[in-house]
Amino acid sequence: MKQTDIKEVKQLLATPKNIVIVTHWSPDGDAMGSSLGLYNYLIQQKHHVTVITPNDYPAFLNWLPGNNKVLNYQLKTKIAKPIIAKADIIFCLDFNSLKRIEVLGVEVGKAKAIKFIIDHHLQPEDFAKYMLHSTEACSACELVFDFINLMADGKSINKNIANCLYTGMMTDTGSFRFPSTTARTHKIVAALIDAGANNSEIHNRIYDDNTESRLRLLGYCLSEKLTVLKEYNTAFFSLRADELKRFNYKKGDTESVVNYALSIEGICFAAFFVERDEAVKTSFRSKGTFDVNLFARKNFNGGGHAHAAGGQSDLTLDEAVIKFVSLLPEYKKQLNKKQ
Ligand code: 5GP
Ligand code: MN
Question: Is 302:295 a contact under the CB 8 Å cutoff?
């Protein structure tokens, strides 16, 4: 962010404003952690703030401070619309294109508010006046931490803010193990713990809160649904809607299943396909040099980061998988590169 922008934003936030915070479709730990981290900072500064999500998010995030004030646009469209129209500022967190918030993007796009993107995804679109963006940041939460430090000082980070930001940094780095984790990540996390983040408790709430059916669904995926294509160093899962139903699927239940495929020795490309009402949702993960952002953009109408991306397809589940497998020969050289 330019110095002049920082000055302008400081001036803008010097008096109480109507602020809306929006985040991406199917919010994850970073989307909710960054949104509620920023929410807790802005209400401390006496602004009127509403967090609006395009749709629902997993129950293991419901403990985040401020969660009970969040508006789900799908369920509360009538309440949310005038709040968006009246906003002075709209913060867009953890996404890089208005398409990522589906129909909510139409309202945000036509709102008179000043837009401010805080994001770490590749290739952001130009729809905001201000942008705090870095693909080096491990998470949007890291950038919210930077934003608060640019606006004020670290002392403004209270326990609620610290718990929210810790959550997103932890989930987006796979508990501080992905290559996006840097010394800076750990320094910020140390500062958050100093500010009151309860790291061990957060781990428990996010990772040790499985329902029995979620764990059984994972077991089913691992034993029955995994395909390994050694020739391409690729492994993937696919799940039909009836299988989700059989395991009493709840939002978030399949989150990070794809990482198990990537954990297989020698595998550098992993995918997960799941049949949803709207479309087939895809998740891609990689290790080493294979760029799944490019792969998802080119072939599955999506995007994300070099090592973690997603997308969707209007094909049937089987057709989407066939398409995926048929694309692999094109990428064989890259997939067989010594890492
Ligand atoms: P996941 O596979 O966990 O849904 O998403 C992995 C990463 O890719 C996240 O950073 C997410 O924001 C991004 N992503 C997931 N789905 C899409 C999509 O449909 N379009 C774009 N542009 N990014 C996506
Ligand atoms: Mn993120």
Answer: no
